[in-house]
Amino acid sequence: MPAKVRAMKPKGTMVKAISGHYYVYEYRSVREGKRRRTKMGRCIGRITEAEGFVSNAGN
Questions:
Q1: How far lies 41's CA from each of 2, 33, 45, in Å?
Q2: Rounded CA separation 37/20 (Å)
Q3: pTM value?
Q4: Fewer Cβ atoms within 10 Å of its own Cβ: the N or the C terminal residue of the chain?
């Protein structure tokens, strides 16, 4: 992931690159026994290099 895109990421979110586009998801850390794992939430928007973070419509 380019540093430019990483800098636009809102705090407390995770960015996934899918088919050349960057999508922003909510996430949280959950305990399963003695291990911690990342639980993905819903997609809250996308990041474009031209516009930065773009929230989903209806949020």
A1: 23, 21, 12
A2: 26
A3: 0.77
A4: C
